[in-house]
Amino acid sequence: MNDVKKDGTMDKYVNAKIEETSRNETLTKNSKTIENMVEMDSVCKTYEDGRIMALDGVDLKVRRGEFVSVMGPSGSGKSTLLNLMGALDTADEGRITVAGHDLTQREDFSTIRSAEIGFIFQFHNLIPNLTASENVQIPMLETPLSDEKMVQRAEDLLKSLNMENKLDQIPTKLSGGERQRVAIARALANHPSLILADEPTGSLDSKTGKIILDILRDIHRRDGVTIVMVTHDERVAEAADRIIQVSAGRIEV
Ligand SMILES: Nc1ncnc2c1ncn2[C@@H]1O[C@H](COP(=O)(O)OP(=O)(O)O)[C@@H](O)[C@H]1O
Ligand SMILES: [Mg+2]
């Protein structure tokens, strides 16, 4: 981590997050006692001043510990749905509760995200000039963990994903499957109660995709973490307890 601090890359992140840290310490996880990890009531989301209706009155409940797949045509609103659940974007109308936090009543989204939610994207979104271990440490910068503990946890997570020989590699030196393992380790860094995965196998060949899917299933089984996963692939979707179909901004029932 010291190397990174020298060129200022990590400093930018640290500085951006410092004001969050004190609030973060006060956010208690109440997700162990709630029934539903996600609740959406009549959620609408438009883009382009209302010209594009991305979500059109979505009602959805995801139970704590459930593994749900989201399927639907391109442009049907799957990513929008995930982004709203992940407090990466806000709804125009309706109510969203995630891990017991009412997102429509709160504004400290980054605190909720870092304490409760792990994200995995199709194109991993790793920071190119940071090593695998440093990428995994990024979410932990928002916690009171010492540098030593952050390094240890990042290494433990990567080792648990058979990445012990790649701790100090930068993303361009890793294969697609390896990058996605780093992204999974990063998503797990802060012990999330909810993992949101947007086409996590979408840019992988089918064999590598299956390995990544098996890792997600193991995490679900072992840790009981709730997973919502968007996928185009029916075989991938079938790994979940339940498949939700999205069509033109609505959930099909
Ligand atoms: N940031 C944005 N600005 C404008 N339109 C958007 C934006 N994000 C998504 N959309 C539009 O909203 C609709 C739903 O998009 P999205 O949720 O990405 O669908 P999916 O993930 O199912 O392919 C599409 O018509 C898309 O073009
Ligand atoms: Mg999408």
TrEMBL record:
The gene is lolD 3. Its EC number is 3.6.3.-. One of its GO terms (molecular function) is ATP hydrolysis activity. This is Lipoprotein-releasing system ATP-binding protein LolD. It comes from Methanobacterium congolense. InterPro entries: AAA+_ATPase, ABC_transporter-like_ATP-bd, ABC_transporter-like_CS, ABC_transpr_LolD-like, MacB-like_ATP-bd, P-loop_NTPase. The keyword NAD does not apply. One of its GO terms (cellular component) is membrane protein complex. The keyword Manganese does not apply. Keywords: ATP-binding, Hydrolase, Lipoprotein, Nucleotide-binding, Transport.
